[in-house]
Amino acid sequence: MFSPTDTIVAIATAPARAGIGVVRISGPRALDVAHAILTVAGELTPRHATLTHAFARTDGVASFGDAAHVPVLARGAAIDEVVATYFPAPHSYTAEDVVEISAHGSLILLREILRAAMDAGARLAEPGEFTLRAFLNGRLDLVQAEAVADLVDSVTPLQARVAFDQLEGTLTRAIGELDRELFELAAQLEASVDFPEEGYHFVEPGEAAACLGRVKDGIDALLETSGRGRVIREGRQIAILGKPNVGKSSLFNRLIGTDRAIVTSQPGTTRDMVTETIDLDGIRLGLVDTAGISVSGGEVEREGVVRARRAAEVADLVLLVLDRSRPFDEMDDALLGETGVARRIVVINKADLAPAWDLEAITGMVRGPGPPPSPIGLPASSGGAGGARDSGRQELGRSSDVGLHVEGERGAEGFASPPSEMEAGSSGFASPPSEMEAGSSDPAVSASPGVAVLLSVKTGEGVAELRAAMRAALDVEEPLRDAPIVSNVRHEALLRRARESVERAAANAELAGESASEDLVLADLQDARRAFEEITGRRTTEDLLKQIFERFCIGK
Predict the structure, then answer these.
(1) Angle, vertex CA 377, rays to CA 374 and CA 378, nearest 5
(2) What residues contact 406, with CB distance under 8 A and at least 6 apart?
(3) DSSP helix, strand, coil percent of the chain (3-state; round to 5)
(4) Within this chain, do residues 329 and 267 fall inside the same structural domain, yes or no?
(5) What is the DSSP letter of 375?
(6) If you ran DSSP here, which 8-state letter would residue 38 be given?
(7) Residue 3 belongs to a domain
(8) Would you say residue 1 lies in a domain?
(9) Which of 239, 229, 236, 235 is closest to 153 using CA atoms?
(10) Structural domain contains residue 145
(11) Residues 516, 469 share a domain
(12) First-to-last CA distance in the chain?
């Protein structure tokens, strides 16, 4: 990758105008490089802020320093008045000698200081190289190093809290306790293997089974947190879908709290996708406002419809908006059918206007088979879902030969796919079978009945209920403070591998009894321990380190 013994330098703050910017120098010659570009007299006092000046580089080099061979630059004009802080090894972020130079937050000034440090012998740091050195020097393990990146990337308080807990070592300690149990059991089994002629087993089968059971339960407890942890870490994507002029863009603006999307009385204002990130009670949501779904329009409108359908295909949650003030038509029915297998919330908008269709019938159509609950805040329907849907068609003036539903070919939600002419080149919204299986570890992709919410985007009535329904649909509970939580897909995969090894070890231990060799059990325990070591980084590869640290920003 790169040499871990070089002295490196980078701007450690964001590349934007700010009150303060920091240039970080780390490595064996950090103090020499700092003295070469600062006007401070004498040595920098460890862990004390020193007011000084950084001066510009010049074309010539006056002389060279001591045995470190750090060039002493001929002093030019002062760049800025700065504050320098020296952190001697090992009590620094990288566990090396570190000097941090705080200057005014102009990128021009910071880049001049950076150039001066590079001319004095430092090398520009690679992305994540400071944190990589902290890992290589034993100050952080790999879980904590990954938590640093998550903490920098966090956009909600809940994301930051989960990342900080991992940085503090909550997950590391939990895995360490499980690994310790396996280590002690493996040591006893190895003693039995080393003295086979004695015919003595250093661990009883019941004791081994109990130990392996505790480890398996501990792994299961961690894996139970992975679905919700990944929702918090990765966020979720929500697509707003519906016909033109039903209030999709108004709902989008209401949820993000600003007029981001253009809203007019003319249908088809939104022709492309508009995206924004919002914080829903600590969950990062990517909200997508899509073009109105229709069968007419020009080439641009048709492309917008295709993109809308694609956005809904990959979304973790679909908000299907219906306009209660306009007659329920074939397109509304088709959209209900298309999104029937997706995780969705049906938003019945314009509750402040006179209704144009029966609410109870639509409620039954949303939920499919079974007793139809009413939209939030409304009385429950008295009929069955199938009856509600059929009666709904009659009450809404539906024709049986429209072709949007095919009798006898309905799926689990009671809807068949719309005809090909309604798809505008899309394959529909069905999620891949693997994502819709019951028992999926990811709560955001598990199939569930639909929910209907009655609201008025104009007045704001029902918006709070919609946000609560969105939170419930994503199925995320705030984790306990300082409790270990798995939020990284790499950690989850390795924990599953460890669990499989522990299960094999338990099965082999049960078969072995007191007369068989412990070799098979010992091999399984070693496999499980290797998985734990890969999580924390005690056992890793250069390719894995490169993959993890290349997503860091330069200067971290």
Answers:
(1) 45
(2) 416
(3) 40, 15, 40
(4) yes
(5) S
(6) B
(7) no
(8) no
(9) 235
(10) no
(11) no
(12) 17
For the beta sheet containing 344-349, the strands, ordered from the edge strand earlier in sequence to the opposite edge, are 274-280, 283-289, 236-242, 317-323, 344-349, 451-454
CA torsion 13→15→20→25, rounded to 10°?
A: 40
Calpha distance 89→437 (Å, rounded):
52
Residue 323 near residue 354 (C-beta atoms within 8 A)? no
* Domain shared by 75 and 119, yes or no: yes
Contacts with 291 (C-beta within 8 Å, 6 or more apart), sequence order: 244, 268, 270, 271, 272, 273, 301, 304, 305, 307, 308
CB distance 182 to 203 below 8 Å? no
Give the residue from 23, 117, 107, 38 showing the smallest Cα distance to 70. Answer: 117
pTM score, whole prediction = 0.69
Instruction: In whole angstroms, give the CA distance from residue 494 to residue 513.
Output: 29
Are 513 and 372 found together in one domain?
Answer: no
**CA–CA dist 64, 120 (Å, integer):** 10
User: What are the pLDDT tens digits along the chain (556 aa)?
Assistant: 567 789 999 999 988 888 999 999 999 999 999 999 998 878 899 999 999 999 876 654 434 344 444 444 455 678 889 999 999 999 999 999 999 999 998 899 999 999 999 999 899 999 989 999 999 999 999 999 999 988 888 888 888 888 899 998 999 999 999 999 999 888 887 776 666 555 555 667 678 888 899 999 999 999 998 888 888 888 888 888 888 888 888 888 888 876 544 444 444 444 446 888 888 877 888 888 877 665 554 444 555 556 666 766 777 888 888 888 888 888 888 888 777 777 888 888 888 888 887 777 676 666 554 333 334 333 333 333 333 344 443 344 333 222 222 223 333 333 333 333 333 333 343 333 333 333 333 433 333 446 888 888 888 888 888 888 888 888 766 666 778 889 899 999 999 999 999 998 888 877 755 444 577 888 899 999 999 999 999 888 888 888 888 888 888 8
CB-count exposure of residue 47 (10 Å: 0-12, 13-18, 19+): exposed
Pair 331, 424: CB distance under 8 Å: no
Give yes or no: residues 114 and 155 share one domain: no
Closest Cα partner for 328 from 375, 388, 398, 384?
Answer: 398
Q: Provide CB contacts within 8 A for 500, sequence distance 6+.
A: none
Contact between 374 and 350 (Cβ < 8 Å) = no
* Amino acid found at 371: P
